[in-house]
Amino acid sequence: MLPQPRSRPLKSGSTKESEFINHVEQKLLAISRRYENRFSATLSEEENPDVEGRGYKNIGEEMRDLDSVVDIIWISGTRRPFTLYTIHHYRTTLIDNIASLQIAFLLTVALTVMTSLPSFPFMPRPTFQLLQKLDVIFTSLLKGVSVETGELLPGFETGRSRLSITEKVRMRGIVERTRIAVVDVASKDGSLADVSTASQPIMTDTEDDFNMTTEDEDMDVLEDENSHRRWETDIARVYERTIVELGMALDASGPGDHSWAP
């Protein structure tokens, strides 16, 4: 599911680290611009041929772009403390004055997913694929080992690169709000859309009745029921492992108010 990360984090202050920062920031800025231009997605290619500037037509397009950014961030393994300002939907935000590059960028992606969900009809497949990937990544970073392979993550060899309380609390806030956002968008009438159904040819009532047998009708009903059950299960599992790991991590950190405030 996840690409193989670097054996060692990018060297602090190196040219490669600077290139990594610039690359990810430019990718996130491009995604932000396409999100803001989403209402222009209906323009024809002749009117708006620049794909980079064209607004997103659906949430699936944005999720795929964010997924590719997540892979780059994961591979980098960059863990050095860093003051990071990032642009999220044209708003400049201080992510953290002690957060690592990797965590700060991943939290930016997770926040972008959360705020983008209500803006489009819900598409389960690409949405859950990205959320499941983020769940694996966050759980791995909280543990310091890959939950897929059991291998120690780059930068965690000394045990000094664990997430800070600030990072954990911010992560929990985004995770909890995302779970609520997914339920809200998935429960809206007429909001459920997916590539698999949208790409199918539309048939007239007459053609449908003529070609559909009783067995076909039964199979369609069964497939529809199974799909809904699968999506309901996936909704309940959004950030499931991260929630459990965060609960243990914050409980172990001692008394205090760890509530998240926007």
Explain the layout of strands and helices.
Blueprint: H1 15-36, H2 59-76, E1 84-88, E2 91-96, H3 101-116, H4 124-143, H5 165-187, H6 195-198, H7 205-211, H8 214-236, H9 240-252
Antiparallel strand pairs: 1-2
Q: Estimate the mean pLDDT confidence.
A: 75
Give the helix proportion (percent range).
55-70%
> What percentage of the residues does DSSP assign to strands (E)?
under 5%
Distance between the termini: 31 Å
Computed over alpha carbons, the radius of gyration is: 21 Å
Total helical segments = 9
Instruction: Note poorly predicted spans.
Output: 81-85, 92-99, 194-214, 216-223, 255-262
Largest sheet composition: 2 strands, antiparallel
Question: What global shape is seen?
Answer: globular
Structure description:
The structure is a single chain. By secondary structure, the protein is mostly helical. It is 56% helix and 4% strand. The protein has helices at 15-36, 59-76, 101-116, 124-143, 165-187, 195-198, 205-211, 214-236, 240-252, and strands at 84-88, 91-96. It has a two-stranded antiparallel sheet with strand order 1-2. β1 (84-88) and β2 (91-96) form a beta hairpin. α2 runs antiparallel to α3, α3 runs parallel beside α5 and α4 packs parallel to α9.
Q: Which short descriptors sum up this protein?
A:
262 residues, mainly alpha, two-stranded antiparallel sheet, 2 strands, 56% helix, globular
